[in-house]
Amino acid sequence: MTNGSDERILVERVFDLGLPADTVWALLAQVERWPEWAPHIRRARLDGEGTLGAESQGQFQFWPAGSGRVHMTTWEPPHLWTWRGRVVGLPIIYHHHFEALPGPTTRLRWVVELAEGRPGPRANAFARVYARIIDRAWPRFVAWAQQEATRQNGSRPGAPDARPKEQRDGDR
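RE: above sequence
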């Protein structure tokens, strides 16, 4: 994390999905679709062509906390992406870690970190609320990702192929 400062970590969650890391990466990279599994996000939009990448910037509309912009700060596919933004006036860094485990399993680690300063009452309140929100959203992401991974790529032209790598390799 930033400067190794664990005191700035506001929320951290780790969970495993029974899908390959490249599939999980492709699914989570569909930022505009986050409202389908994250009820606290009313709208997610990336600037430009809408493809997540090293220069990505975007806008989120949150319930109940208004809106915020983010910009990519670290882009290391398919292992990590980090972006920075502001929510409720707090400078926040969002880390998305992807770790391939044996078999078709991926460990996702989500870390929300205060970008500067020390956590005060507002950051602590945000952390409590956001932790509850994330605890509801991630199981929905897991279910959504597993469902999406079984769909045929042709059902959404132009979408990243979310099928497991073994199925995609069979198309060649």
